[in-house]
Amino acid sequence: MKSNTRRHEAPMRVPAPEKASLRASGSADSKFDRLVYERVRLGIMSALAVNEPLTFNELKALFDVSDGNLSAHARKLEEAGYIECAKSFAGRRPKSEYRLTPAGRHALYRYLDHIEAVIKATRRS
């Protein structure tokens, strides 16, 4: 008889770098931001950091995700204050344009600093 329960794999854990490594990168006070960590959300924030503004359809094409998936991730980032969405119409079609907020840019840079510190600490070991 087969069991209908799914096997859940433990999430990959990244070793936390030493505090000295974090201080060297200038981000000792930052925590690992799980909101930014997710692939699509990190992609949205990274794309907006270099290409503002981007429309919903442009983001959707960049990450090859469904409308619902992109919408859910964008909503989480909006709720956190990391991105802003301006809705308008182009003719009769709705148009959503996204921009990275200053808080979002800060969160992205803090996340990147943390990842750089992890990489440096890992290479030293």
What is the spatial order of strands in the main beta sheet? 1-3-2
Q: Name the shape in a single word.
A: elongated
- Strand tally is 3
Low-confidence regions: 1-30
User: What quaternary form is this?
Assistant: single chain
Strand proportion:
5-15%
Secondary structural class: alpha+beta
CATH uppermost class: Mainly Alpha
DSSP helix fraction: 40-55%
Strand and helix order: HHHEHHEEH
The rounded Rg comes to 18 Å
The helix count comes to 6
Largest sheet: 3 strands, antiparallel
- CATH third-tier fold name: Arc Repressor Mutant, subunit A
Termini Cα gap:
47 Å
Give the count of structural domains: 1
CATH superfamily membership: Winged helix-like DNA-binding domain superfamily/Winged helix DNA-binding domain
* Annotated CATH architecture: Orthogonal Bundle
On the 0-100 scale, what is the average pLDDT? 80
